Structure formats: C-alpha cells, structure tokens
Amino acid sequence: MASEEFQPLQGMSDLSSPEISIWHRIESTTRRVFHLYGCEEVRTPVLEKSTVFERTMGDTTDVVQKEMYVFEDRGGRRVALRPEGTAGVMRYIAGLGQDGNDARVYYIGPMFRCERPQAGRKRQFHQLGAELIGPANAAADAEAIAMQVQLLRELGARDFKVQLNTRGLSEDREAVVKGLRALLEPRRAELGEDDQRRLDQNILRVLDTKDEKSLPIVKSLPPMTEFMAESSRAYLQDVVSHLKRLEIDVVLNPRLVRGLDYYMHTVWEITHPALGSQDALAGGGRYKITIGDRAVEGVGFAMGMERLVTALQKDLGDAAAAPKLALIWVVSLGPAAFQENFRLVQTLRMRGVRCGLDLAGRSMKAQMRAADRAGATAVIIRGDTEMEKGVFVFKDMATGTQTELAMPELLERLQSVNLVA
Ligand code: HAM
User: Is 61 in the pocket of ligand 1 (CB under 6 A)?
Assistant: First the structure.
C-alpha cells in the first residue's frame, strides 16, 4: 500500500494510462455523435453559488441534502462544487434569453458528490450529458434516448438496457402523491427508516427504494401511471412508439422515478449488468426548471463515465481502449550518431511518426531494453558505420528480423508499421 501522502482524497482517483485511453475514445466518440444531433459543447464552471443547485434540483433531494460539497469562499459567499451538470447548464441557458429557446448543448466533465464511497460511487466522478431545450414533445424525448443509444452502440457496449417511465405533469403529481400516500401510510411501520422519512418529504422516492424491508410493499403497489391523467399516459405511449420506429428497445419500469426533483413526463435510466448494485450507467428525463423569471423546458440525460469505462472493459476487454500509433525507438551507437538521431526523431515526429530515443547516452543493451519496456513495434539502429554508408538498421521487434534500409525505404516501411498497434 503506497503511503497516504501519495493518495488522492477518499472517493477520488487519478485517471492515467492505460485506462485513460478508454476515456479518450469515449470523449472523442461523444463529441462526434452528439454533434450529429445538433449539439454544441458548453463548459460551465465547476464551482457555482449553492442556490444554482438548490433551486434547480429541489432541496429535498438526497444530492442537495446530504451529498453536496458546500462551503463559504473567502468572500463569505455560499458556493458548491457541482454535483451534476444540468443545473449549471440551465443557469447558462436562462441567461441566453430567447436565443436559448431551442439550444442543444452537451457537456463532459467532473462532478462531485460527498457520498459514502463504495463500488460505483465516487466523490469525484465524471459525466457526459446533453440537454435539448424545447417544450414537451415525445419525439424530442425519443431523440434524446436515441442519442445515448447510438453513443453506446458506437462505443461497442452490448448488454445495456433502457428502462422508461413517466413522472406525469405537475397536475398529476397531486393525484399520484395522494394515491401513493393512501396505500403507503397504513404500512409506514413496515418500511425502512429512510423510506419512512421519504414518505413525509418526497413520497415518489419510496418507489425506487433499494431497502429489502420496503421492497415487498413497494412491489405490490400499482404503477403510478394509474393515478395520472390519460394525456400523460398517452405521452409516454408516444415516446414508446417513436422509439419503436427508431428500432430502440425499451423496458417500461413503473417504479422508476429518478432521484432529482426537476423531472416531468418521460424519465429513463440505462442499466448495465457489469455495474453490480449501482447498475445505472445513465439517467435522464424531461424537465421544466424555473430560474428567476424564466422557465426552461427541455429533455436531457447524463452518463457516468467511470461506470461506462467499467461496462466497456467488460464488453470489449482490451479493445475498449483507443487505438494507439505504433511506437518506433531510435537507438544510437556513439555520440555522433546520437546527434543525427536526435534530429531524425524530430523529423519523424513532424511526419506523424510516434518515436522516442535515449537521451542519457546509455549502452546499446540499455537502449534496447528501454525500447522493449516502452512497447516499441520497431527499432531504428544507427552508428558510425551506418552513417558512413548512409543507411539505417530497421529491426522489427515482433519477428526480430533486421534489415538495412536507405532513407526512402525507411520512410516507406515506417508508413506501413505506423498504422496502429
Ligand atoms: P443522475 O442519475 O444523478 O442524473 O446521474 C447520472 C449518472 O451519473 C448516473 O446514472 C451514474 O452513472 C453517474 N453517477 C451519479 N453519481 C455517481 C457517483 N457518485 N459516482 C459515480 N457515478 C455517478 C443527473 O445527474 C442528471 N443531471 C441527468 C439529467 C440531465 N437529467 C436531465 N438532464
């Protein structure tokens, strides 16, 4: 176990090679796919006034009540590290006025929730997400889901499942809460402790309980859509039909409510079996969020990138990583060859060849060992003899064969190995 001095804070991680290569592939694929759907990137600050999150996410949500990193800055202002991306984006969109009415944006970046660290739950994690602004429209909801599914397919994820439900409109809320309360209140004592608290504060959250004590009761409840107006049920059916037209399979899950307060109409989660008990790869839904005198309507989602990396490693193994350029190592026999090779390496890099060389004047054996350690595909060896003859010795590391090549052949050969390891 490395000394604590070298460790980041609990629940936070250094992201580095080799996994970072999977992150790169996720990020570049996200940018490309989301661009196809008309989204532009927005980068909002990581730190905001705490009210940005409190008013958007609802102050009875677990994230706001228990998990936000909130503190006073040096000027005595109450600020918070963003626990999710939507609230900051809504502040930004509301600030655009009319120009924000049909904005489509996406974001990629770190989020912070001071949760009890466990598998799949980090205190600093990363999300990629998108928000499609516009009034309630079942086709837009289907498009937001399609965007995520296309991303997952292009990344090569296989075993994911889209679960769909509706939260109805705010008008339905009262009937749903009343209906659920009538069924749950008589059985209050049989519910887990957290769910008894939710019964008072945010009854819908009882539905997505993970508490073994509450589960049998919750599973016996009718789907909450039964308490909703016909039009809300029809909206959900519209989303399902649109998705069918796009050949996207979904599973209706009447107990799915999502942990954030801003949703209305469609909500969904994408789950993946590689994730264990925290199996939500992504979550999203439609919302109407009021900021000052503006109401922003839209539909959006966020995907947990750590969880996505885990899912891709499970589905793809080594192929989860971004392909790398082959590495060429240049070995110098003597100081004169080093001078020439130092320049050669620069020239090759300018031609797009990924290469390296020993800068410390070590022995040939040490240089070959370094090439091996760095995972070089081929080595170019040059000493006084080669310089006199105007050639390079090209060694293929996989086969061990060595060939003497002049510059034009060397470049040709490099082009063929440079394609990707
Ligand atoms: P969320 O469900 O809170 O939704 O988070 C979305 C995803 O972020 C989760 O499905 C999960 O993969 C990942 N995630 C959340 N918390 C953690 C954690 N502690 N450690 C690792 N991964 C985590 C939202 O954040 C909404 N803003 C989504 C949205 C956008 N709805 C509308 N627009």
Answer: no
Kindly give the distance from the C-alpha atom of residue 218 to the centroid of ligand 1, in angstroms, as a whole number: 23
Run of H or E including 395: strand 392-396
Relative to beta strand 40-41, strand 104-112 is: parallel
Ligand 1 contact via 112 beta carbon (within 6 Å): no
Asked if the model's pLDDT at residue 421 lies above 50, the reply is: no
Q: What percent of the chain is predicted at pLDDT more than 90?
A: 86
Q: Is residue 2 predicted with pLDDT exceeding 80? A: no
- Give one DSSP letter per residue of 172-221, joined into a string: HHHHHHHHHHHHHGGGGGGS-HHHHHHHHH-GGGGGG---TTTHHHHHTS
The more confidently predicted of residues 111 and 279 is: 111
Residue 88 beta carbon below 6 angstroms from any ligand 1 atom:
no
pTM given for the model: 0.93
Closest residue by Cα to atom 1, ligand 1, is 283
Distance CA 199, CA 207 (A): 10
